[in-house]
Amino acid sequence: MKMRFLKYALPVLGFALVTGTSAHALAFFKNVPEVDPSLAVGALMLLVGSLAVMRARRRK
Amino acid sequence: MKLTVRANPGPAGKSLSQSAFSLTIPGHLLGRFYLFAGIVAVEDLLLSRMINMGLALPLHPFPFAIMSFAVFLGLGHSSLKAQREVIPFRFGFLGGHLACLAAAVCFFFFALPALHLVGFPYLLAADSIPKAFIGLSIPPLALACVPLHAWIRVFRVTSPLWVYAALAGVCAGILSPLSQKFWSDPVTAPGQFLQIATFHSVESALRFFMPDVSANAATYAISTPRFSVLIYAPCSGIQGLALVLGFTSVWLWYCRKQSRFPQALLLIPCALGSIWLLNIVRISMLILIGDRLSPAVAMGGFHSEAGWITFTAVALGFSMATERLSWVRKTPLSVPSPVGFPAGVETGEAAGAREELREEHGESPATGAYLLPFLAILAASLVSKAASGNFEWLYPLRFVVAAIVLWHFRSELKKLDWRFGWVAPLTGVAVFLVWVAPFRWAHGSSASPLGSALAALSPAARLAWIAFRVAAAVITVPIAEELAFRGYLARRLVDREFDRISFSRLTILPVAVSSVAFGLMHGQHWMVGIVAGLAYALALRWRGRMGDAFAAHAVSNLLLAAWVLSRGDWAQW
């Protein structure tokens, strides 16, 4: 029962932490970009594409 | 070419060989919930970009709705998945939804400016009308995706889950402003703690290289004889921490079946620590570059790009750690041959484990050939922009790196059909006209610092830079982008073994999604980028040959290069 509760509670806790921290971080985007939002699409495409390549199978 | 719209009855009815352009809508309940969430998210993104009103949806219900929806889908996943009855999609309600959105956009663009002009006394109330229309558009969309009788059944089979979901949403709604206040309060702010820690860490790191660096703890200023920066709270790593927290949570959820818990959770603080330390390295390098090399490079390209470079590095490192570390993975990386068996001979158990590993690394082996040329261009652009101020002098790096990667995969790429017909150049010309027309009609040639930066170069350097820029636009960029967006993404949305799918059988949905991704990559040109993506996809689908997409893309880029060089319209580059 405890493990079942943890299984569902942890993602919810993570979700709350992520949205809370992101909301705080996003508020700063208008002023000083530590990560420039105008470059987000290219950078995220690079990340997602690299992850896809990493998970590709080897040719037999 | 006929257009048919149908509901997909599920895996059994999944067809890759439809001859018509068909829009496939998930037929079952769970798929419809995902469709509903996806449509709301995409519309919100597009509306916020289009009418620049922040987040387009009314903000207050956000934490409640997101949390309720997440908890409901998370806890009720298995119950919802068990509902296998095919449900109809109500296009009438979709029409109502679109009508509300159209009303919001029309009111925003036409009625509000008119009310401002005539000095309408209740402008504040009028400003909220578009948001009200957008809020009103949500229920019809919910009923279009999931009919009323299906909603009633959902509440019945998942009861009392929806009560817990609503309670979680209420908690999120209450906690959201409190947590933001906690972060923003100057007395207790973790942001200020990060600021102090970052300031002293950067100062210590710099003293190692520059003994003459001076630091003012009252203003958080770090100065060298030639360069000075103020370390604000927002520069103290909070954005990187947020991004890494988001990525690591999503990635662990994605890999939850292959990872051991709670061991895998220990990687999250490691990743957070890494991004924070890398932010200190970033600020230290920024000051070193500003002092020793160029303040323009430090505050221009490096300041903007370095944050993404460090985030990408940490995210890739984290995902590699979850894949490679044996104490995090459930399945072992290598399965040893059993004692007494020669190498290469496996027991059924070992072979099964290997097969499981292959299934886990499920992307097609062709993924690298289709994606790496484009990824090489993206990586090279991050590096070249980081090393640049106002002018990207390292642009030739993009061409060279892409050419090397394309050459590396030449045997794989030779298998593609490179022939093209008359439709390809025609499409290229049409895309070029669509690309330049809006900017020409709107404000003529736009001012861009590129022209003056090129004029400041020596003739030989200017000629070389332009030659590489044109070569990239006409050769490497069309090939790499078409391989990535049409060759990979559009087909990968249909099936994991994307390289087995014929281009002539691509359906509307993957073509549209890949075109939107293609458009978003083009920044301020995103809308014409989507149109261009759709046009290249149509050229590709015409005879099912990549050559047609390559040629169409190359022709439009060639014409655009000629336009830029002949008219000095540098903003188009």
Question: How would you sum up the major sheet of chain B?
Answer: 3 strands, antiparallel
Number of strand segments of chain B:
5
Radius of gyration computed on alpha carbons of chain B:
27 Å
The helix/strand order of chain A is: HH
**Low-confidence segments of chain B, ≥5 residues, pLDDT <50?**
1-22, 54-59, 335-346
- What structural class do you assign from the helix and strand content of chain A? mainly alpha
Order of helices and strands of chain B: EEHHHHHHHHHEEEHHHHHHHHHHHHH
**Please, what is the average pLDDT of chain B?**
81
Can you offer a commentary on this structure?
The complex is a heterodimer of chains A (60) and B (573). Chain A contains 2 helices and no strands. Chain A is mainly α and 60 residues long. The longest helix of chain A is centred in the first third of the chain and has 26 residues. The radius of gyration of chain A is 18 Å and the shape is flat. About 8% of the residues of chain A have low confidence. Chain B is globular, with a radius of gyration of 27 Å. In chain B, 67% of the residues lie in helices and 4% in strands. The longest helix of chain B is centred in the C-terminal third of the chain and has 34 residues. In chain B, the strands form 2 sheets. Chain B has a 3-stranded antiparallel sheet with strand order 3-4-5, covered by helices on one side. In chain B, strands 1-2 form a two-stranded parallel ribbon. In chain B, helix 4 runs antiparallel to helix 5. With 573 residues, chain B is mostly helical. Chain B has 3 domains: 182 residues, no CATH class; 141 residues, no CATH class; 204 residues, no CATH class. In chain B, a hairpin with a 4-residue loop joins strand 4 and strand 5.
Give the helices and strands, then pairings.
The complex is a heterodimer of chains A (60) and B (573).
Chain A: H1 2-27, H2 40-54
Chain B: E1 3-8, E2 21-26, H1 29-51, H2 62-75, H3 77-81, H4 91-118, H5 123-136, H6 138-145, H7 148-158, H8 161-184, H9 190-209, E3 214-216, E4 221-223, E5 228-230, H10 238-254, H11 267-292, H12 295-324, H13 348-360, H14 367-386, H15 396-408, H16 410-413, H17 423-443, H18 449-455, H19 459-492, H20 508-520, H21 526-543, H22 546-567
Parallel strand pairs in B: 1-2
Antiparallel strand pairs in B: 3-4, 4-5
Helix pairs in contact in B: 1-6, 2-8, 4-5, 4-6, 9-11, 10-11, 10-12, 11-12, 12-14, 14-15, 14-19, 15-19, 17-21, 17-22, 19-20, 19-22, 20-21, 21-22
